[in-house]
Amino acid sequence: MTAYRSSDTPEATAPTGPLKPRTHWRQRRDVQAAALVPLVALVAAVLIGDLNAWLTLTLAGLAMGMMLFIMTSGFTLVFGLMDVLNFGHGAFISLGAFCGFSVMLSMDGWRLSESLWLNLGAFGAAAIVAMTAAALMSWLFERILVRRVYGDHLMQILITMGGLIVAEQLIYVFWGGHDIPMLKPPAFQGGVQWGGLVFEKYRLLAVVLGGLLFIGLLLVFKKTRLGLLIRAGVENREMVESFGYNVRCLFVLVFMAGSALAALGGIMWGVYDEVITPHLGQSLMITVFIVAIIGGLGSIEGCFIAALVVGLLSNYIGFLAPKLALVSTIGLMVVVLLWRPQGLVPVSEGGK
Amino acid sequence: MFQALRDTLPSNRWIRGLLLIIVVSIVLTPWLFEGTRALDTAARLSIFIVLAASYDLLLGYTGVVSFAHALFFGIGAYSVAIAFDQFAPGFGVLAIAIVAGLSVSLIVAFVMGLVSLRVKTIFYAMITLAVASAATVLVSQFYHLTGGEDGLTYRLPRVLTPAFRPFDEPLFGVRLTGKLFNFYTVVFVAILLFLVMVRIVASPFGRVLKALRENDFRAEAIGYNTLVYRTTATLLSAAFATLAGVLMAIWLRYTGPDSVLSLDIMIDVLLMVVIGGMGTLYGAIIGATVLLLAQMYLQTLMGSTQEALGGWPILANLFDPNRWLLWLGLLFIASVYFFPQGIVGRFSRARSAAAEVRP
Q1: B interface with A, Cβ–Cβ below 8 Å
Q2: Mean pLDDT, residues B198-227
Q3: Which end of chain A has fewer surrounding CB within 10 Å, N or C?
C-alpha cells in the first residue's frame, strides 16, 4: 500500500497556479479571521496601557498560542481528513510529556550544562523519543480502536474516551501517580534584554519553534503532493479515493504525525510549566477542543489563528481579571460560534 | 404506568430477576446488611441509578454525547448545599433550593443546546466538556459561596438526622432514626424519578427520540423538528440530573467538587451507562451496581493480586488497587465493541421498539 502514487504521469502533476481566482479581502474569511490576532493585541494594549507589561504578555500569549497550535493541528487534521473525533488526543500530550521528561531527566549531563547547544540537544533527543513513542502508540490506537468505528461519531467519542481512560491509567502504572518536577535547562532560563525590555528565553524559543512548524506545515500542505492529497482529502474524500489514492493509509500517516505533534506540544508545555501531572493531557484537551472549534474543525489556518487568539486572550485576561481566564476562552468560543457557526475558517462542506 | 413498565422491561428473565434482586436489596438494606457502609452504598447506588438513567435518556435515546451531566448533578447538589449553608435548614428552604437549582440547570442546558445543537451534535460533546471544566474552576474560585476545594458541610432538618428518634423500640431489630428516614426519602424519590423516566421513554415523545437516534435525517423528513426534540431531551435529562444532585446533597450532608462535579464523576456515569446498556434505561441499574461494587470490591481483589505479584514491579502496578479504573476502562472499550447495547441489551430484547438493533 502506498499513500500516494509515486509514479508521476504528466497529467497527474499538481496544478501550479492557484485554482481559485483572487478574491477581494472582504470575501476572504481567513484574512478576516487573521485580522483578529492584531485586533485582540491592540485592544489589550489600550486596556493594559503599560508597554512593558503588554509586550511580556504578548510574547507569553504567542508562546502559549504556538504550543496550543502544535497540539491542536493533529486533532483538527484528523477530524478534517477522516471525520474522526479523537477524544484520546490528550493521551498523546501526556505520553509525550512523560516520555520527554524521562529522557531529559536521564540526560543530566546535557540538561544541566550551561551550553545552549547541549541543552537543545537534550531537548531535541527528548522530543524525538517522545514523538516516536507517540507515533507508535497512535498507530496502535488507530489499529485497535479507531479503525472499526469510522463514520459513527457517537462510537468514536465513546471508544476514544475509553482509550483516554486506559492510556491515562497506564501512565499511572508506568510513571506512578505523582507529579514530576523538572527545572528548565539553564540556557532556557531567564530572559534576553533588548532596549530596556525583557523577553523570556523559553517563550522566544517556543514562538520560533511554533512559527517554523507552522511554516513547515504550510509548505508541506501547499507545495508537496502529499499535502495536496491531504487538502483534497479534507475537501472531498470520496473524490480522492475515486482517483485511486489510498486515503485510509494517508489518514494513518496524518494520525501518527498529529499524535507526534501532540507529544511535542506536551513536552514543550511541560518544560514551560516545569512540572507535569498525569492529568496534563486531560486538562489541555479542553483547550485543544476550544481552539479546534474556534478555528473551524479541519482547518489548519483556522487552527493557527485560533490558537494565537486563545493564547493571547487568556494571557491578557489572566493579567486584567485573573478569575476569568478559563471562562474567557469559552466566552470567545461562544461569540465566535454565534458569529460563524462553522468556526473562523470553515472548511468547505463539499462531498461530506 | 404499568403498561409503560410492561413495554420497556427487558424480556430476559435472568435480567429481570437481577433487576428485582438489586431493587429489593436496596430497599431492604437496613434489614439485610449490617453497618453504615452498606446503607451508604445503597443510598449512593439509588442516586447514581437516577443519574445514569437520566444520562441514558440523552446518550442512549437521542445519541447526544454530553460531558456536562455532572455539571447538572453539581448544580442540584450545590443549590441545596448553599441554601442550607446560608439559611437555617428547613423544608421551605429545601423547596426553594430545588426550584432554584432546576431553573439554573434548565437555563444552562438551554443555552448550551442553543449554541451547539444547532450546528452539529459532535460540537455538543466538546462544548459541554469545556463548559463543565469551566464550572469546576468557577466553583473553586467563588469559595465564599461554594467552599472552594473543601466543599460545604451543612446541617439538615432535624427529621433527617441520626439524632431524630421518634420511637424507642426497634422494628425487627433495626432502630428507626432520622438517618433511616433520610435513607428512605432518598430511595423512594429515586424510584419515583426512575419510574417517571420509564414513563417518558415509553411515551410517543420517547419514540421520536429513538427515531432521532437511529436516523435523524429521516425523522426530520417525516416532519419532526429535530432541534426541538433534542433540546427537550437535553432539558429533561438535565432536570433529572439536578434532582439526583439534590438527593446526593441531602444524603451526604456534604457537597464538594470531587463528590458531585468532577470529570471523574462524569466518567463514572459514562461507564455505568455504556457497561449497563445504552438506550435501555434499566441498564443504568445494572451499570451503576457493577461500577459501585467494582469500586468497593475489585480494589480488594486487586490488592491481593498485587501482593501475590510483588516481585514484578510494572505488573504489580497494573494491579494496584487505585488502578481499578484501568480495568473498567478496558471493560468499557470491550462493551462498546462487542455489545454496544451493554449487559441489558446483550442478554435481552425488550418487547417494544427498544428491540431494534443498532447497525
Answers
A1: 63, 65, 115-116, 118-119, 121-123, 125-127, 129-131, 133-134, 137-138, 141, 263, 267, 270, 274, 314, 317-318, 320, 322-323, 325-326, 328-330, 332-333, 336-337, 340
A2: 86
A3: N
| A254-282 pLDDT, tens digit each | 899 999 999 999 999 988 888 888 888 88
pLDDT at residue A2 above 70? no
Contact (CB<8Å) A326/B137: yes
CB B74 within 8 A of CB B139: yes
Q: Report the residue of chain B nearest A328, measured CA to CA.
A: B134
Per-residue pLDDT averaged across B340-348, rounded?
Answer: 70
Average pLDDT, chain A: 81
Per-residue pLDDT of A29-38, as tens digits, reads 677 777 788 8
Of all residues in chain B, the one with the smallest CA distance to A340 is B119
Do B130 and A290 lie within an 8 Å CB cutoff? yes
Q: In chain B, which residues have their Cβ closer than 8 Å to the Cβ of A148?
A: 337
Contact between residue B215 and residue B49 where contact means Cβ atoms under 8 Å apart: no
Domain membership of residue A110 (yes or no) is: yes
pLDDT at B194: 94
Of A162, A292, A333, the CB nearest to B333: A162
Structurally, how many domains does chain A consist of? Answer: 1
Contact B256, B86 (CB under 8 A): no
CA B255, CA A322: separation in Å to the nearest integer? Answer: 26
Q: Is B216 exposed, middle or buried (0-12, 13-18, 19+ CB in 10 A)?
A: middle
- Which residue of B333, B339, B341, B358 to mutate against A (max A Cβ within 10 Å)? B333
Neighboring chain A residues of B332 at a CB cutoff of 8 Å: 158, 162, 165
ipTM: 0.78
Does residue B90 sit within a domain?
A: yes
On whether residue A5 sits in a domain, the answer given is: no
- Collect all residues of chain B within an 8 Å Cβ-Cβ radius of residue A289: 126-127, 129-130
Cβ of B332 within 8 Å of Cβ of A283? The answer is no
For A326, nearest residue in chain B (alpha carbons): B134
Burial of A236 (0-12, 13-18, 19+ CB in 10 A): middle
Is B118 domain-assigned? yes
Q: How many domains does chain B have?
A: 1
Burial class (CB in 10 A: 0-12, 13-18, 19+), B100: middle
Out of A9-23, A58-72, A150-164, B341-355, give the one with best mean pLDDT.
A58-72
Q: A283 to chain B: nearest residue by CA?
A: B133
Domain extent, residue B236, equals 23-280
Distance, CA of A204 to CA of A207 (rounded, Å)? 5
Asked, for residue A94, whether it belongs to a domain, the answer is yes
- Better-scored residue on pLDDT, B343 or B66: B66
Q: With an 8 Å Cβ cutoff, are B336 and A330 in contact? A: no
CATH number for the domain spanning A41: value is 1.10.3470
User: Max alpha carbon distance in chain A (Å)?
Assistant: 60
Here the cell at position A151 is: 463514520
DSSP conformation class of A263 = H
**Residues above pLDDT 70, as percent of chain A:** 89
Residue B357's CB is within 10 A of a number of other CB atoms, namely: 8
Report yes or no on A4 lying in a domain.
no
Give the integer Cα–Cα distance in Å for B80 and B97.
5
What CA–CA distances, in Å, run from B47 to A21, B20, B122, B241, B330? 61, 17, 28, 9, 25
Residue B339 lies in a domain: no
Q: Choose among A332, A305, A303: nearest CA to A317.
A: A332
Least CB-CB distance to A169: which of B129, B130, B329? B329
Host domain of residue A193: 29-339
